[in-house]
Design a protein that fits this description.
By secondary structure, the protein is an alpha/beta fold. It contains seven helices and ten strands. It has a single domain, classed as Vaccinia Virus protein VP39 (Rossmann fold, 3-Layer(aba) Sandwich), CATH 3.40.50.150. 29% of the residues lie in helices and 28% in strands. Helix 1 runs parallel beside helix 2 and helix 5 crosses helix 6. The radius of gyration is 17 Å and the shape is globular.
Length: 235
């Protein structure tokens, strides 16, 4: 079981072959989140703890990460312990469906599993991380509603079509979109991901778009660089 590190400007993340590694989705989500004055943050499906660390870098909140995968929790705890924010990040092994919080959260974030096909990743850990075997759209929506403070906000990233399904499901609980970011790999292709910020405050949705590369591999767009430059060493 090989281990490797992904190094950011203020922390590094150990990941293993058997669980999901650091990816563009997670980095985009963490960089896009506006922590505001949040005091309590929950990361659902924390994996390596990436989002916990990214958010700890830019706010003073106490942060909880949860994951159903025991190995992911082990790795996340190691990464948190190696960081300078270990005193305000805790990681727990639990499904969100079973997770009980002492208080509700001002901010909830999730880079949830989204593959729904019958073909699953061969390793059990990666299967849980990539496929909605343990957390489907409906379960995530009801869990967010249960754990989110009345004036709290939630951010998720999904493939664009599934994000709309999630928004539809969340609307059943009075959660509506404040902001959407449509993400494309290049300017000439359709969005492959959507990040949405939800709250119980009714308002007109602000929409924006971003493409990662200008057209050539590793020729990153100015907008992508600007969004992620507090984290990536190369920017």
């Amino acid at each position: 079981m090989s281990d490797s590190y992904f190094t950011f400007k203020q922390f590094r993340v150990l990941h293993r072959k058997s669980i999901m590694k650091v990816g563009t989705d997670g980095v985009l989500l963490g960089a896009y989140v506006d922590c505001g004055d949040a005091k309590r943050i929950l990361d659902i499906g924390t994996g390596t703890g990436l989002l916990c660390l990214m958010l700890a870098q830019k706010c003073e909140a106490h942060i909880h990460g949860i994951d159903i995968n025991a190995e992911a929790v082990e790795v996340a705890k190691f990464n948190v312990g190696e960081s300078k924010w270990a005193d305000r990040i805790e990681v727990f092994q639990s499904s969100v469906q079973d997770f009980v919080a002492e208080e509700k959260y001002d901010l909830i974030v999730s880079n949830p599993p989204f593959y729904t096909t019958d073909v699953v990743a061969p390793e059990k850990g990666r299967a849980l991380a990539r496929h909605d075997l343990s957390l489907n759209i409906s379960e995530l929506a009801v869990s967010v509603d249960r754990l989110l403070a009345q004036d709290g906000r939630c951010y998720v990233i999904y493939p664009t079509e599934q994000c709309q399904l999630f928004e539809n499901e969340a609307s059943k609980y009075g959660l509506c979109a404040l902001r959407r970011l449509y993400v494309s790999s290049r300017p000439d292709v359709q969005p492959i991901r959507t990040i949405v910020e939800l709250s119980r405050r009714q308002c007109e949705t602000e929409c924006d778009s971003l493409y990662i590369e200008n057209g050539e591999r590793h020729d990153f767009s100015d907008k992508y660089r600007s969004l992620t430059r507090d984290y990536y060493l190369k920017f």
